[in-house]
Every structure is written in structure tokens, then in C-alpha cells.
Amino acid sequence: MTSQPTLSLRDKTEMPAFGLGTWKSKPGEVYDAVKVALSAGYRHIDCAAVYGNENEVGQAIEDSLNAGVITRDELWVTSKLWNNAHLFDDVRPALEQTLADLRLDFIDLYLIHWPIAFRPGVGFPAGPEDWLTLKEAPLEKTWEAMIEVKKAGLTAQIGVSNMGPERIELLTGVGEAPAVNQVESHPHLQQRDLLEFCSNRDIVLTAYSPLGSTDREHRKDDEPALLEHPIICEIAEELDASAAQILIKWAVERGTVVIPKSVNPGRIEENLASLELSLTDEQMKAIAEMDKGYRYLDGEFFTKKGSPYSADGIWR
Ligand code: A2P
After folding, report:
1. The domain containing residue 304 runs over which residues?
2. Considering only CA atoms, which residue is closest to atom 4 of ligand 1?
């Protein structure tokens, strides 16, 4: 079986640097995807309440544990607090629901999904009344509740997603720095400054949308196709590998966690096998040249429909 690289968190816990993404994996598909992945040797599943599929992910985890495919100790499960549960008293119930859906007593990592808040009960805002400002739902209070659920043993680690240095400093000031920051990252959005900022503070960076998330809604017509980029395709040919495998291995080589999503059994295996590749310094350098600060997920949704949030303000 392919050996699994890990990254050390601040408390020396080893986090698997490669996992299965489940955003956009539909109920009806994700059960098989998780089972295939765990059988193939995946040790890390990345989830979130808002993906609407944790119940099915949980069924696959439970069945795999019961079948002896994997033990709980070997498995890393991440989930994320949705924007409608940022108020202090709403954090624990949200995590308890996730634990019930995932059929677990605890998860390994719980993240604040976005630095954006909705009114309790609002899945996606339909009008101005559905939003809460960060004055009404301060991230520091949400973080205090995250510290509490960690103390209570419902999650082993706590972290954030979609946050920049300013937010990370703010939360660190509450008393505990995030263990992980999960952000979009791939060759067109390398996040070098943020990666350096995080590693200076012993915060591990997890790269989402490593393949460009071509299966998401609201794609732009002119967005760059990472999987067809000539530099990536050329390196793939040199190594007799696929473009996706180059993108995944690049992310691991540069010291991030990476969570490619797939519901296709062949591609689930292919993505894991990318860990066996070695990229040369020249190949790493050629990919480094591809950075252009391009976001596939530009946060535009969160600035519409009477939102008090601005596109620039999200990533601070
Ligand atoms: P599928 O689930 O049918 O395999 P991201 O992880 O950046 O969000 O990208 C997910 C998208 O990339 C999905 O459309 C997924 O499709 C596709 N994908 C996953 N693995 C591969 C691969 N090895 N080759 C090509 N496309 C892939």
C-alpha cells in the first residue's frame, strides 16, 4: 500500500497530508466513494455540514470500521461549522449533529468554515435579514466555543477555513491558535505568503480545490483549466502520470495537506497513487511559475443578496 505522508501539528499530532474531499459529492455517490477510498488506503476524509452528505459519509465510515477495513485510530476525519451556527451557544449543537451524522464520538479536526455569519436556521441567505455581521456574531466568540468543544473532547483539533493573517491573529489572541487553515490552493493560487505566515506559527495549511473544482456550479466561462495546462501536461507526460496526479503530488511536496474530491473509483485510486511520484526541482520550479493569484472560489456568493460582506474583506 502507498505510504501516507503526514504533517506535524503544533501539539505533534501527525495529520495525514492526503485525504478525500467530499464537497460536491452527491448523496447516492459519496457512500461508495468513501468505501472505495478507505479500502484503497485513504486515511483522511474531509467533510462539512453544508455539503449535505455527512449522513452518508458516516454510513460508509461505520461500515468500513465494522468490516475491519480501517480502525478509528488510523482514520482522520475533518468537518466544518456552517455559517448559521456561529453564535456561541450554537457551536456545540452543530458539532453534535455532525457527530451523529458521521456516527463518531469525536472528530479529529473541526474548522470554522468561513469568516461569515448567517442567522441561525438560514442555510443560504435569501434576503438582507438572513445575514449577521461580524459585529453581531464576532469570530472571537465563535472561537471561544470552538475551544470549549475541543476541551469537551468532541474534536481533537480546531482550526479555520478561508481565513487570512488578520483573522488568524485575532483568533490566536483569544487564547489558542488554529491548528489548521484550509484554503483554496493550486498552481494558479499558490498562497505563498499565507503558507509562510501559517508555517511560522505552526499552522498547517490544507489546500482545497487542488484540481480546480471543475464540477462546481457557477463556473466562469473564461476560467483557466488546470488539468489541461501545458506545463502540468508536459510534466505528466515526463513522469508517465496524469495531470491530476501532478497537481496532487505538487501540493504534498510543498508542505500542504491536499484533499482532491472524486466519486469515481478509478480516479480515487489514481489520486492516491500520485503519492508515489517524485517531482524534480526543475518540475517544481516550472509549476511555481504558474502562480497568478487566481481564485476559482472568489466568494462572490457571500457578497450578494443584501450581504453586509465585501469580496475583499473575506480573505483578510
Ligand atoms: P470525479 O468526482 O467524477 O472524479 P477538486 O478536488 O479540485 O474540487 O476537483 C474535483 C473535480 O475533479 C471533480 O470534477 C472530479 O470528478 C475531478 N477529478 C478528481 N480526480 C480526478 C482525476 N484524477 N482526473 C481528472 N479529474 C479528476
Report:
1. 6-314
2. 262
- Render pLDDT for 167-190 as a digit per residue (tens, 0 to 9): 999 999 999 999 999 999 999 999
What is the number of other CB atoms lying within 10 angstroms of the CB of residue 162?
A: 22
Residues in contact with ligand 1 (CB, 6 Å cut-off):
21, 209-215, 227, 242, 244, 260-264, 267, 270-271
Residue 114 CA, chain-centre distance (Å), reads: 11
What is the pLDDT of the chain when averaged over all its residues?
A: 96
- Compute the distance between CA of residue 274 and CA of residue 249 in angstroms, rounded to an integer: 6
Per-residue pLDDT tens for 61-93? Answer: 999 999 999 999 999 999 999 999 999 999 999
Q: Is residue 51 annotated as a catalytic residue, yes or no?
A: yes
CA of 213 to the centre of ligand 1 (A): 7
Question: pTM above the 0.90 mark?
Answer: yes
Name the catalytic one among 31, 51, 110, 309: 51
Residue 130: give its domain's CATH number: 3.20.20.100
Backbone angles phi, psi at 82, to 5 degrees: -80, 160
